[in-house]
Amino acid sequence: MKQENDTSKRIAISLALIVGIFLAYGQVLGYGFLNFDDNRYVTENKHIAKGLTVESVKWAFTQTYISNWHPMTWLSHMLDIEWYGLNPFGHHLTGLLLHIANALLLFTVLLKMTGALWRSGMVAALFALHPLNVESVAWIAERKNGLSTFFWFLTVWAYANYVKNKNNRNYARVVLFMALGLMAKPMLVTLPFALLLLDFWPLNRLGDIKNKFLQTLKPLIWEKTPLFLLVIGSSVITYSAQKDWGAMRFTEFSPLYSRITNALVSYLEYLRHIAWPHRLSVFYPHPGDSLPAWKIGLSGLALLGITLWAMKTLRHAPYLAVGWFWYLGTLVPVIGIVQVGDQAMADRYMYIPAIGIFIAVTWGLPALLENIKQKYLPTLAGAVLVLLTALTWVQAGIWKNSIVLFEHAIAVVENKTPSFIIVYNNLGHALVKEKRYEEAIVQFQQGLKINPTYAKTYNNLGHAFNELKRYDESIEYFLQAIKIEANYAEAYNNLGNALKQTGRVKESIVYYSEAIRFKGDYAGAYFNLAGALGRQGQSEKAIEQYQKALQIKPDFTRAHNNLASLFGQQGDFTRAIKHYQQAIQIDPDFAKAHNNLGSTLAQQGRYEEAIVSFERAIEIDPQYSDARKNWQLARSLNHENAHAPVSQKIR
Question: Which among 68, 82, 96, 431 could disulfide-bond with 436, CB atoms 3.0 to 4.6 Å apart, if both were Cys?
């Protein structure tokens, strides 16, 4: 009967976790993609866009991208593309289901190791519903966090099975799951050390801390040799990838002193966010050397005091020490001693470390309150979870779209150091996407007030002015971007566009060429250069540049269309038709290509086929006047079976 009751309770807790997560996070299923890495990870990533193909899988395992080598994460995004295409609902659903799976796995492994049903459930609930974890669930680009944690918990589950029944098969599962986790995100480099903590408690493999502790510890360390080898391999790959991509910040946040002091303060700030998750932000700017001495000293003393206290509790309350050292240790890779990125800290970094604090509190609080009636604890726990659910629901709402997300960051972050320009820049970029150019300009200019040396914002500001047809101002900002970053290919390309729009075509060719020199695979620059050359009557050179653009980006529909037009002008109708058809095959709703194909067919006297193309162009765009005129003329010529030169009649 007891076993049946325990099973019923486990099911009830599991269902409660699922319902709670859907209540707190369900709204994210209606959100879209963000302009903060979602583009690089999914929407504009040509490898991900192909879905699960031999070529894309090979890329995932053999190439580093965006400072990381995490093939399992790429495969996950590719699978989403296979199932959902670019419908953000499906991508968010996968992230939400991963969070549910992680909460259920955490509950399962804790229960397996401790046998404590309600406490295991409480830790899982705190993990499931804490607002700090919203970033890891609502942000599609953070799929790596949820996926790697999934494999983290599977590794712990397999390890618990191995401890219970030591054999090669069970150990192989431990190694496999950890390897898969490292291939999702290298955050798992601390996992072998976390397993040693679990050996101490709750697995109790180390015995009494004063009785042959070191003799017992040594074989447990040797036992994890394959895991440490995985850590070394992953660390080398990650270091190499991040260095090659320029993600490591050794100069901006030097000397080492500023990184260490930021780490000390961040450890304490994270604890504050766990206790009171208020004013959370998508970005916390690095303070550099601006941290006051009193704050550094207070943080260092607090951390030292808690650590000494935790060590004193090793014998009578081992869960406190395990929870604390879990928190300290699992944060090491992202605490900023080796600075990656421009942030001081990030909510997503707490997805695993906060579990240590949850364990310490959940096991420690009942012991601390042993003189108080225990019947109040369930009420207290319930109130905390209801509050966390409400706070998480509010925090999830901040991730509705890029504009809301970055406006919130500007509102809650007080110390806007130079690196905070990223937030203003991304907010301005999001406003540009909505064609709110005047508002975007305000945000870009606000950002430049705190960091006047950020080339990307000058480039984006130039683009906003360009869209408003204020070309002289846009040219000025593009030139400033290039002055700051001499190899900024996008700024050269945009400057070329602005010059071409003011009639300075010859000058634009120089800047397009520079963009290509700095970025040899820049399909857009080849396309624009071809257009400029075509306007100067250099058709052969223009054709060559369009072809180069298509070699880089075979699905570049406008390049196919423009190349076809040049072939048509040369009388090469076969190749013209071929490229118009390719453009239409890639984008069936490309009205201009349908119209142009119709014109080319009509020039060959193929009126019936031309009529079909014109009708399709009109169907796509009923306001397309040229297509309608061409359709009427083609019908007339077809009816009369005229043989006059059509090239002068069909436009």
Answer: 431
User: What pLDDT score does 23 carry?
Assistant: 97
> Does 256 or 88 have the greater pLDDT score?
88
Spatial contact of 36 and 402, defined as CB atoms under 8 Å apart: yes
Q: Give me the torsion for CA of 44, 46, 52, 53, rounded to 10°.
A: 170
Give the separation between CA 255 and CA 250, rounded to whole angstroms. Answer: 8
Instruction: Indicate if the pLDDT at residue 568 is higher than 90.
Output: yes
Alpha helices in 276-314 (DSSP H): 293-312
Residue 140 and residue 547: Cα distance in Å, rounded? 35
What pLDDT does 209 receive? 64
pLDDT score of 642? 46
pLDDT in tens, 414-466: 989 999 999 999 999 999 999 999 999 999 999 999 999 999 999 999 999 99
CB 35 within 8 A of CB 426: yes
My answer on whether omega of the bond before 255 falls inside 30° of 0, hence cis, is yes
Instruction: Find how far residue 117's CA is from the centre of its chain.
Output: 35
CA dist., res. 532 & res. 511, Å (int) = 11
Domain range summary for the chain, segments of one domain joined by +: 2-397
**Residue 55 neighbours by CB under 8 Å, 6+ apart:** none
Amino acid at 641: N
Say how far apart CA 498 and CA 518 lie, in whole Å.
19
Assign 345 to helix, strand or coil: strand
Mapping DSSP to helix (H, G, I), strand (E, B) and coil, where does residue 149 land? helix
The pTM of this model reads 0.90
Q: Are strands 343-345 and 284-285 parallel, antiparallel or unpaired?
A: antiparallel
Q: Could you tell me if 638 and 606 are in contact, meaning their C-beta atoms sit under 8 angstroms apart?
A: no
Q: Do residues 565 and 576 make contact, with C-beta atoms less than 8 angstroms apart?
A: yes
Residue among 110, 170, 125, 172 at smallest CA distance from 12: 125
Total number of residues shown for the chain? 651
Six token digits for residue 380: 């207290």
